[in-house]
Amino acid sequence: MRHVQMTRLVWLTAALIVIACVVFAAAQSR
Amino acid sequence: MTLAVRAVFWVIAYLGAVLAPLVFAAIGAGQPDHSFWTNFSVALGFTGLAMMGLEFALVARFRPLAAPFGQDALLQFHRQIGYAGLAFILIHFGISAHWDEVTPAKAVAAPALVWFGMAALLALIVLIVSSVWRGPLRLSYEAWHIIHTVLAVVLVVGSLLHIFFVNEYVSSLWKQILWGLMSAAFVGLLVWVRLLKPQRARARPWRLERVVPELGDTTTLVLKPPPGAGFRFEPGQFGWFAIGRSPFSITQHPFSFSSSAEREEVELAVKALGDFTSTVSELEPGTTVYVDGPHGVFSIDQDEGPGFGLLAGGVGIAGLISMLRTMADREDMRPVLLFYANRGWDGVAFREEIERLKENLSLSVVHVLEEPPRSWTGETGYLRADVLERHLPPGYRRFQFFICGPDPMMDAAEAALAELGVPPERVHTERFDMV
């Protein structure tokens, strides 16, 4: 099930990047 | 470091590299006030670019990076995170484009940053469309690979110039230096993959010794490494091959080593499936071959167990027969059960040799045919859980399982083993679906 785990890792990575973008945007627009 | 720790290290390193441009942009005052959505769009643009730059690293065949995941899993990450990057960049474009100014007249007079941004976006869209629909578009692997590489370079260079012309984020000297370093790392990666590695391979040419036809449109290529190369591989590993072409050619082909890891001559089993593989049987002995390898973590030497279950579909047998041949040479008598799925009996490559290998191994073989002959009394259909269950010995959950074949077969086999309670850490796969 390695490819299933890898898909989860992709989702997790993308989600973390989006969260970082939101934090960046919030911090910059204060 | 264990493989799991190394995997975590690489994931953190990846996130660090993707988020580095945000840190560059955030540090240092003097930026004009932007709304939340503008800043969010900028962040998506930066991270999207970093993700695209790192796509090169994921397919650069770095052994330390591939070791904890497997090259096929890295390719899967490359493909799927590419979709995420496309989404990021499309949202960036959707938010940041001046939609009220999108008219043909104004487009011509648009500033350079718009032109470079649009070129990068267009390159990305064509790149992904040509990858997802390579089959319907009837693009050969070779043509697709060249298009993919050229568009990827256009995408990254266009994006870097887009940022340069936005100016706001490269206004100070130290930011220019940081962006310069990032760009240099990207160029360095290209130089390493496309010039230095091929240059090293050119100094060590291999020779095609023999071309042996096998059943099932399969051909064995017998290769001889250069004298004194001391080439070693583990059974199940693969290499990238430039056969009869320059080591600098963009397209190389991945093939599993099919010979015993204990012998000097190296063999590949190639099935006629595409433009290049269909011409392999016509290769002349004496042809020069350049090899980048070995690669991969799909090997009985990496995951030892009290016994092995090998599940092959079609030419997926190549890496698995290497395991059997190696075990025979090593007089390894641990039990092995080979499930070998094929369409018809006449296309079962190596079937006679596999029968002979039974004499030197503790090997059981189960052929599974999709279109069996009338007299066939063996298993039919696909590698389902009930087929496996009928033949697996007691204690099979402690075996190590290796699966290689076409994607649908591998999905079915992985699901079947999970259904039978085999722990996922004992199931190993090697996928070669590049697109």
Q: Bin the helical content of chain A.
A: over 70%
Strand content of chain B: 15-25%
Taken from the alpha-carbon principal axes, the silhouette of chain B is elongated
Radius of gyration of chain A: 13 Å
**Main sheet attributes: strand count, strand direction, barrel closure of chain A:** none
Structure description:
The complex is a heterodimer of chains A (30) and B (435). Chain A is mainly alpha-helical and 30 residues long. Chain A contains one helix and no strands. Chain A has one domain. Chain A has one helix spanning 2-28. Chain B folds into three domains: 3-201; 206-295, Elongation Factor Tu (Ef-tu), domain 3; 308-430, Nucleotide-binding domain of ferredoxin-NADP reductase (FNR) module (Rossmann fold). Chain B has helices spanning 3-26, 36-58, 63-66, 71-96, 104-108, 112-132, 141-166, 173-202, 317-329, 351-357, 385-391, 407-419; strands at residues 206-214, 218-224, 238-243, 253-256, 266-271, 288-295, 308-313, 336-342, 363-369, 379-380, 400-404, 427-430. The model of chain B has no long low-confidence stretch (mean pLDDT 90). The interface between A and B is medium-sized, with 21 and 38 residues.
